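Aim 2, interim progress. The first record below pairs a target sequence with its structure tokens.
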Amino acid sequence: MVQNVFAGKKIVIGVSGSIAAFKVAGWVSDLAKEEAIVSVVMTSSATEFVTPLTFAALSGNGVHTGMFGRGKEDAMAHISIGRDADLVVIAPATANIIAKLAGGIADDLLTTMVLATRSKVFVCPAMNVRMYSHPATQKNLKILKDLGYKVIDPACGKMACKEEGEGRLAEWDGVREHLAQSLSFQDLQGFKILVTAGPTREPLDPARFLSNRSSGKMGYALAQAACRRGAEVTLISGPSALTCPQGVTLFKVQTAQEMNDAVLAHAANSSVIIKAAAVADYRPETVYVHKMKKEKIARELVLTRNPDILLELGKRKKAGQILVGFAAESTNLLEEGRRKLLAKNLDLIAVNDISGDTTGFEVEFNQILVISASGAETLPHTTKLHSADLLLDRVLQLLSKKP
């Protein structure tokens, strides 16, 4: 599994004449930073909004703007650009360019290149709300979908024309996930994966609670990676500031009891359950309806045990189901991991070392010790998204052996 799904991929960005073209400059910059090989094709109208020099500087490659280039190498650009592409993205796609593509018109470099390519083409509409809702535009979008184009629906909001509604260019984070999924092996297609993430909050009163340092980053990365690889993913998350990955079904909870109820409700229908959440072991025995004055709070806090969700899942595990646990440890990682693997009837356990500053809670990187019945393996120190993919590779190996 490669660390970066975009690295080395040839992606063609087709830019048509819309004020939203300036947003696409950021997309090109991000793809180039992720080591994609980005080629930009601009219509003549697009150059009125953003200069070709801007896209050339951000992509590190020359920008194509016309059918007839100056050199021999450009003579067949309308064929060669799209022929070698892994993906073609039309963004922003105006009503005009959508109509041309729907009608098979090829009167400039961009439309000719799209007709010639056999790569997957993503279309990202951007226009005034009235233009977008016009029956002709909607008919043309349906034609594109029927022809096999991947249309990414626009967002709603205020536009440059001061009107508000559907027609804004889709946000990059969502588009990026569509592209990443298209470039990823769909080796988890057909599997339902349940992931938990984040901390829980156990209230003492309306102002105070017991919790932990979990940000949810590892669990969200697992959900994102699994969805990219074609799985149907349900994410049950405690309080987190993170955005739910595109294509993932999210259920938000607060307390350990709420997480317990949500997990058990979805567990039976899941092929794989990955418990990455840091669930509180205890909660206050007494929860006050109103905020307690500090002078009245007892110095000794009486706690009661929360349900052990992972233990219960181990008891209920069905034949063929994969159960993966997470453990945050600062000492004796191997011993504690093996103990929990056996005690909770797990197929795998991922042990996080939280004793340092570069792994564990609240950071972008991780180094996981993966333990199974057949042995232990320390994964490389890498991003949490790459760690998630590496762990899913091990899950996939187990799935291949299950009846």
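The second target in this work package is listed in the same format:
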Amino acid sequence: MRFDIAKSGSGLTYEIRQIVTIGNRLEELGIEVNWENIGDPIQKGEKIPDWMKNVMIDILKEDMSYAYSPTKGMNETRQYLAERVNRMGKAQITSEDIIFFNGLGDAIARSYSSIRLDARVIMPEPTYSTHLLAEVLHASFPPNTYRLNPYSNWSPDVRELEQKVRSHKSIVGILVINPDNPTGFVYPEETLKQIVAIAKQFDLFLIFDETYHNIVYNGKTTLALSDIIGDVPGISMKGISKEFPWPGSRCGWIEVYNADKDKAFSSYIDAILNQKMSEVCSTTLPQMSIPIMLEHPEYENYLNTRVRHYEKLSNIAYNILKDVPYIVVNRTNGAFYMSVVFNEAVLNNRQKLHIEQTDIRELIEKLVDDQIEYDKRFVYYLLGATGICVVPLTSFFTSVPGFRMTLLEKDAAHFESVVKNMAEKIVEYIESSK
């Protein structure tokens, strides 16, 4: 090319999927891989019940399911969701305040790309990769973040958040992921209200990613954005990928709050919608399924059974890992992820795990030969030595080394053996350089 055409920031990687290439290579070499890297319940063995499949069969018989939907989404579904918000939350919206996208990844990309280049959204650290990549690629600069503290159950540093908002005039919005991905932290009511108060004080808008809002357990409770937003402008992001679960549907939506109360925010929402118009519409069939699924007499019991299973695996993992030296682990209380943190200065570039198979050992040693993050080095050795595939925590834009695993395995006994193996390898790896 006559000059460099790639937009700044394209060097960022999506490690959740990038590590799949390495895992696939190991499978070709005869290793059985335990995929703990990506939040896909179906891939981990979730069986879609017959009643849910029958709902889809009935919708497929409707000619409308093959047509374009309106740009904002199916009118009946948006009306249903608006009434559901109004019934369950304090905020009141209409169907016009709901816009559908081809998955939340699409919603996230368009939401950040519609912001002025010199305006920034401050994000939690660590943060979910899709938000991070979209925000950084929009601005072509590193993100502004507020820390989630692993030594305080992953609670956010609200004081740091306020100080950064006060000092960085480019910050126009605050991102909250509740329940959090990658940490599994569930925001308590008081913390959420403090964040809303900061947004109100500094005239900001809020983005609440509430993908996992109905996947909360271990006795914890939280509030939706609609319960606490008051007159602050904001967006709630929701979808069916994790809750139904139907990740392959690529169906998510945003709920817009208080656009009528702020002209600049209203123009921003119009910019998002204009982008959506260029795409024509989002997938029709999954939108049509939402009211039927959520009102089905089997749905609540089905969701509750899944949530109780995640709760069980959360406690299995926590009880195994909490006493392992060299790491910090917090009990996961929402979503289906657990993040494990290595204690400061316990990792180095001399540590390794024994890998019996020569070709696999050579592959892993080649991967770690470069100057890579220490937690990524551990993740590659763990994958090569055991077939356990997790994601380095530093790939979620944090300097805190560790890894994220999922709580999606359907066989609890197998999951327990995987976590015990992981615990043993953590100690073996750390002590290999002594």
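The chain is about 40% helix and 15% strand. This observation will shape the mutagenesis plan for the next reporting period.
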